[in-house]
Amino acid sequence: MTAVDDRLITDVREIFENLEVPEGFKAELLRGDIVMMAGLGLVHNMIVESVQDQIPRDRWRRLQVQDLDIPDELSEPVPDLVVIERDAVPGAGRLVPSGVVAMVVEVVSKNSVDRDYGDKRSIYAAGKVPAYLIIDPMAEQCLLLTEPTGQGEEADYLLERTSKFGMPLSLDILGIKLDTSEFGTLPPVKRHRRP
Q1: Is residue 31 part of a domain?
Q2: Burial of 142 (0-12, 13-18, 19+ CB in 10 A)
Q3: Which sign does the torsion angle of CA 182, 183, 184, 190 carry?
Q4: Domain that holds residue 135
Q5: Which residue of 49, 59, 110, 151 sits 20 to 30 Å from the alpha carbon of 41, by its own alpha carbon?
Q6: Which Gene3D superfamilies match (predicted)?
């Protein structure tokens, strides 16, 4: 006979905070679900490095895999890159409040497509993150989302701008034009349902 523990989990945040994540993996809390991903590939890491290197360090903090605190959401996403004004960084701690974030960046993988284009889009919009940049090496394009509106799962961005790799992308919020010409690509996978 198999024993089943049918006790209700009442504090998923506590479980998440005490979770022992194996080396080489990262874990996120997305709307009450704990999502674990294996290590990231070379193309992914080189794209993140390229974006980070183009954001002026004297004005911006460019933090890789930083946990965010989204008010009124049971979510603690871990974007590939978080951009914060140098003077706006809060004190110590694991979580950075989404209210101080200027932009988040996610680089899409075949396993993160729906989360990056769907769940995280509404989570970051609900957290009022002013700019969300999705870089998709399979579709060879960037999608810049701005002007967050709404709450919860209904939150979204009012403006979106798509740019193919090789074309510069204006990131007005940071005062730069992002050079995408060196972004690596990955073999296309079955086209996802997202833009």
Answers
A1: no
A2: buried
A3: negative
A4: 43-178
A5: 59
A6: tt1808, chain A
Q: Cβ distance 120 to 37 under 8 Å?
A: no
Ordered per-residue pLDDT tens for the chain, 195 residues: 454 445 444 577 776 676 676 666 666 566 666 666 666 688 989 999 999 999 999 999 999 988 999 988 888 899 999 999 998 877 777 889 999 999 999 999 887 888 899 999 999 999 999 999 999 999 999 999 999 999 999 999 999 999 999 999 999 999 999 999 999 998 876 655 555
Q: Position of tokens 């004297």?
A: 58
Q: What is the 3-state secondary structure (H, E, C) of 144-157?
A: EEEEEECCHHHCEE
In contact, 186 and 138? CB cutoff 8 Å? yes
- What is the token pair recorded at 56? 């002026």
**What CATH number did the domain enclosing 82 receive?**
3.90.1570.10
Residue with tokens 């049971």: 74
With respect to residue 85, please indicate whether it lies within any of the assigned structural domains.
yes
Question: Is the pTM higher than 0.85?
Answer: no
Assess contact for 87 and 59: CB atoms under 8 A. no
